[in-house]
Amino acid sequence: MSDSPLSAARVPSAGFSLFHYASPQTFFPLAGKLLWPCWIAALLLTVAGLYTAFFVAPTDATQGDSYRIIFIHVPAAWMSMVIYMAMAFWCAVGLVFNTRLSFMMSSALAPTGALWAFIALWTGALWGKPTWGTYWVWDARLTSELILFFLYCGYMALQAAIDDPRRADRAGALIAIVGAINVPIIYFSVKWWNTLHQGSSVSMTQSPTMATTMLTGMLLMALAAWAYTIGVALVRVRAIMIERERHTDWVRQLSQAGSNGDMNA
Amino acid sequence: MKARHKRFALIAAGVAALAGAVALVLTQFQDNMVFFFSPTQVASHEAPQGRTFRIGGMVESGSLERGADGTSVKFLVTDTVHRIPVTYKGALPDLFKEGKGVVAQGRLGEDGVFAASEVLAKHDENYMPPEAAHALEQAKKAQATVVH
Which residues of A are less than 8 Å from B18 in CB distance? Predict the structure, then answer.
């Protein structure tokens, strides 16, 4: 624990190590240390994933080479759903425990989630044209994923529209938690209703319906997407921490240490 | 009960109530959530009458006939129980094939023929190299000869 009485008061439970990193002051340096491992993992996994996708995985019997869009489409769609659930989780934690950092995590994830949702929709359209014969249809899977993209946009717009960060956090949390109901709908849409979109090739209950090398490529790309997402969210959460806590002692000390460090270098 | 327990209970109850409401709405609108109707549903008059809708199923093997003009086609859509004849004029998607999935949008005529204005191919979630697909086909054929 820090010696400063101010920061000690901020950590909800002094003896509980889980909450140690729940304060921006302690989390900031940890996030900084995690950055490089994330970038290196993302780079290596992307290279391995793309190599598998283009040079190891075979052509598909029905779709030929156009199926290769799956290597970006599926990881993007997975990330768009996972990130939304993570945002809902952090927002719920923030509301229950009154922790500032949780809401910052949620805000930091939103733009990347929106990006993945957009990529999933865009690559899906590009995949749909040569296979289904259309860029877009209003079936349950495509429509619910579009709603997810709008939820991300709504979350970011609402937060940006409210000046008081505490109120912005609470308003955004409402969208994040309520909108999370859409995520299982996206996931199960191809099971519950008949859709033009095909069912899942990879699920918890069944063995994958893809050739092994195809699956390997897709999973490598999915892990790369995870690493990139965590890295970019950490960069963003660090920026949000400094911006929101600029009037506190630890940010002031940080900027002093930073400028001293620059002078010494 | 601590304040944070109360807040947690409130959020959990709110989400549960909302999920219940959404589940009710979605089951009520079940008919509007489907993208297409199966030939069986069409045969039992579950499909909308007198307006456009989509039917989906398999293109029956050996049923595809191409018209003399080269752009009009006729085929049967089947769900292995019922079959609906479909006519269509225009370009077909690349993955359109006999024995494969199809979704056609159009109107059901008085004569029971579905006049399609748009035909989409529906592919499945299986991805495999051509050799594997070939081997699978051979195995299926071998099994069929054993059965007969």
Answer: 178, 181
DSSP H helices in chain B = 3-28, 30-33, 39-43, 130-147
Cβ-defined contact of A133 to B94 (cutoff 8 Å)? yes
Q: Is residue A40 part of a domain?
A: yes
**Which of B35, B53, B122 to mutate to probe the A interface, most A CBs <10 Å?**
B35
Q: Provide the β-strand partners of residue A87.
A: none
**Per residue in A44-87, pLDDT tens?**
999 999 999 999 999 998 888 999 999 999 999 999 999 999 99
Which residues are bridge partners to A64 per DSSP?
A60
Does residue A10 surpass a pLDDT of 70? no
Question: Which two tokens mark A137?
Answer: 């249809």
Give contacts of B124 with chain A, Cβ < 8 Å: 198-199
Distance CA A72, CA A61 (A): 20
Q: What is the pLDDT of residue A118?
A: 98
Read off the pTM.
0.88
Q: Do the domain assignments include residue A258?
A: no
ipTM over 0.90: no
Question: What are A111-152's pLDDT values in tens digits?
Answer: 999 999 999 999 999 999 999 999 999 999 999 999 999 999
Locate the chain B residue with the closest alpha carbon to A58. Answer: B129
| CB-based burial label for A60 (10 Å; 0-12, 13-18, 19+) | buried
Nearest by CB to A178, from B18, B103, B129: name it. Answer: B18
Low-confidence ranges of chain B (pLDDT < 70): 146-148
Decide if B93 touches A, using CB distance below 8 A. Answer: yes
| SS3 label, residue B119 | strand
Q: Which of A193, A195, A211 has its CB closest to that of B132?
A: A211
Cβ of A133 and B123 within 8 Å?
Answer: no
Q: What is the CATH number of the domain that holds A77?
A: 1.20.120
**Is A58 within 8 Å of chain B by CB?**
yes
Number of domains composing chain A: 1
Contact yes or no for B132/A213 (Cβ under 8 A): no
Segments forming the whole domain that contains residue A49: 33-57+66-200+207-253
Q: Which two tokens stand for residue A230?
A: 């965590």
Smallest Cα distance from B33 to chain A, Å: 6
Judged by a CB distance cut-off of 8 A, whether residue B103 touches chain A is yes
Q: To which residue do tokens 């609402």 refer?
A: A158
* Lookup: tokens for A7: 């920061």
Smallest CA-to-CA distance from B101 within B55, B132, B65, B134 is with: B55
